[in-house]
Design goal:
The complex is a heterodimer.
Chain A: E1 5-9, H1 27-32, E2 44-46, E3 70-73, E4 77-79, E5 82-91, E6 94-102, H2 108-131, E7 135-137, H3 144-156
Chain B: E1 3-10, H1 17-37, H2 45-50, H3 61-76, E2 84-86, E3 92-94, H4 97-110, E4 119-124, E5 127-132, E6 145-151, E7 154-164, E8 167-173, E9 182-183, E10 188-189, E11 195-200, H5 203-215, H6 219-227, E12 232-235
Antiparallel strand pairs in B: 1-4, 2-3, 4-5, 5-8, 6-7, 8-11, 9-10, 11-12
Helix pairs in contact in B: 1-4, 4-5
Classes of the chains: A alpha+beta, B alpha+beta.
Chain lengths: ~160, ~240
């Protein structure tokens, strides 16, 4: 899997999040294809001013190709509106579903974000895979914690 | 508020110190831009210029570089691009937000451009810049980056895909943040649906044009056709 490296900046206007990743459906197959994109960048959630990097170990091949779906829940990530936690369902080495299982619920702003951003994100996680898109240009409102929790879930799933 | 920046690297030796250094330097560029330009930070140079606590002539050279770029952008787009934007009270003041993101991303990308045998894709809040030196074994250009363009009327859908080896992709529209694009000609915010995506050699100029083309109905489009060589647009 190509890992993403990301940092959060406290800049400009609203929170926008665009992310992409590529899950390997067949680890043996991807290594053999000629001219293949060679994956993996260091995975390191970095916040401004912090120099620490955490590296998740890369997976074994055991989870690829499983036919029964398995769910993985990412660690809860803090956002300014509260914690966000993402659960993914993995089937055959690909993410078949993604949903926020715990999301901010305090203010009317929370309701606005919950109402529009999280379903969009949930669909995007699945959508981007199937379309083989590397990245997205556009505008997506979301919570920055969603990405951290999603990455955590992906790491646990050893994708 | 936070704007996540993501960097993808494709190369054979992705764990090398050179790659790690390049990526960290790219993030440092974005952090520095945030420190200087963020209108959400009270003591950023832009915030201080805005409340007249700092003379632009005494600002950091990078801030002055952006001020110059803003002036050029205004001239090039017939005024559709502006760095005089209203604050929450409607008072116009210096705000280079329409240009800084692309400018910073281009600078950050330059830290990745020389990584041997690597191609990069940097996405800063929906503005994308790609490039690098990677090629395939047969001497060809290697795999392009596939950039999806969000459907402004259904943000769960990808409307189009652009394949790119080098250059920037910027999209302007109201889909996520509502009417936040300011039209200086009418002194109001644009409420039109849809989006404009511009693809070209520099992300900063793609960003400038995407904003100008979305905001202005006619003149920017005429100018774009005349002067924006190497740039193309997608209207959604």
């Amino acid at each position: 899997m190509r890992r993403i490296v990301f940092a959060i900046l406290s800049t400009i206007t609203t929170v926008v999040l665009l992310f992409s990743y590529h899950t390997s459906t067949n680890l043996a197959g991807s290594a053999a294809s000629a001219g293949a994109q060679l994956p993996a960048a260091p995975s390191a959630p970095v916040s401004p001013g912090s120099g620490s990097q955490s590296r998740s170990s890369n997976k074994s091949g055991s989870s690829a190709g499983t036919s029964s779906p398995a769910s993985y829940t990412g660690a809860a990530a803090d956002t300014r509106w509260g914690p966000v936690q993402v659960r993914i369902t993995v089937q055959g080495g690909k993410i078949s579903a993604s949903q926020a299982v715990q999301y901010p619920q305090g203010t009317s702003r929370d309701a606005q974000i919950n109402g529009s951003a999280l379903p969009v994100l949930n669909q995007e996680v699945v959508q981007q895979q199937s379309a083989s898109i590397d990245t997205v240009s556009g505008a997506t409102v979301t919570s920055d914690g969603y990405l951290q929790s999603l990455q955590s879930a992906i790491d646990q799933a050893h994708l | 508020m936070g704007m996540p920046v993501s960097i993808h690297i494709r190369c054979a030796d992705v764990d090398s110190p050179a790659v790690a250094r390049g990526v960290e330097e790219a993030f440092d560029v974005m952090r520095e831009a945030d420190r200087l330009f963020s209108t959400y930070q009270h003591d950023s140079e832009v915030s201080r210029i805005r409340r007249s606590a700092l003379d632009p002539g005494h600002a950091d050279p990078l801030v002055q570089e952006v001020i110059t770029a803003c002036r050029q952008a205004g001239e090039l787009t017939g005024g559709a691009f502006t760095d005089q934007l209203p604050d929450d009270d409607g008072v116009l003041g210096f705000d280079p937000t329409g240009l800084v993101k692309g400018w910073a991303a281009d600078r950050a990308a330059s830290r990745l451009a020389d990584l041997p045998g690597a191609s990069y894709c940097l996405n800063a809040g929906g503005d994308v810049v790609v490039g690098g030196t990677a090629g395939d074994p047969g001497g060809g250009p290697g795999a392009p980056w596939r950039v999806g363009i969000e459907d402004p009327r259904d943000r769960s859908r990808i409307a189009e895909v652009v394949e790119l080896h080098h250059g920037g992709v910027a999209t302007s529209g109201t889909a996520a943040r509502g009417a936040h694009l300011y039209d200086p000609a009418t002194a109001s915010f644009v409420d039109r649906t849809g989006s404009v995506t511009v693809i070209g050699p520099s992300l900063m100029w793609a960003d400038v044009w995407a904003t100008a083309l979305f905001v202005g109905p006619t003149l920017p489009h005429e100018l774009f056709a005349q002067v924006a060589e190497g740039y193309r647009m997608i209207l959604l």
